[in-house]
Amino acid sequence: MTPEQRSRCMSRIRATKTGPEMRLRKALWTRGLRYRVNRKLPGKPDLTFVGVRLAVFVDGCFWHGCPVHGTSPKSNQSYWIPKIARNRKRDEIVTVVLQSAGWTVLRFWEHEIKGDLDGVVEAIAITRSEAARTSRSQP
């Protein structure tokens, strides 16, 4: 691709409302699990369950360097390899910051949502109910 073609392709990639995120949102809503989007929290979680302080992130395999499906770009590696490393480091920092503020953080790879959506929904439901039970028992 020419630089102009590559730029056009990259500019069309969404940061929110991605395919995996929308599949997860629909499955959670169908299951009766109500969440919020666009909460102003560190790292901008894809979904939040505010009452139980649960933040859910859907990480793209390429953008966040999935150890199973992440691929190393063939062009402009001097940019992309450090970029993906920074993304991973930022994810770690955001998780620690949110946990320090009393949030439970769940991160799912896009391939987990594509391959086992029911399992991901179940993991969120279990974590949500555990967080609700914990928050009720605290003074």
Characterize the structure shown.
With 139 residues, this protein is mainly α. Helix content is 52%, strand content 11%. The chain has five helices and three strands. It has helices at residues 3-11, 19-30, 77-100, 110-115, 117-137, and strands spanning 47-49, 54-59, 104-109. A three-stranded mixed beta sheet has the order 1-2-3, with helices on both faces. A hairpin with a 4-residue loop joins strand 1 (47-49) and strand 2 (54-59). Helix 2 (19-30) crosses helix 5 (117-137). The longest helix is centred in the middle third of the chain and has 24 residues, at 77-100. The chain is globular and about 55 Å long. It starts with a helix and ends with a helix.
Uncertain segments: none
Strand order, main sheet: write it out: 1-2-3
Structural class: mainly alpha
Mean pLDDT: 87
Q: Roughly how many Å apart are the termini?
A: 60 Å
Number of helices: 5
Order of helices and strands: HHEEHEHH
Main beta-sheet annotation: 3 strands, mixed
Helix content: 40-55%
Fraction in beta strands: 5-15%
**Morphology call:** globular
**What is the rounded Rg?**
17 Å
Would you count the extended β strands for me?
3
List the helices and strands and how they pair.
Blueprint: H1 3-11, H2 19-30, E1 47-49, E2 54-59, H3 77-100, E3 104-109, H4 110-115, H5 117-137
Could you give a short description of this structure?
The chain is mainly alpha-helical.
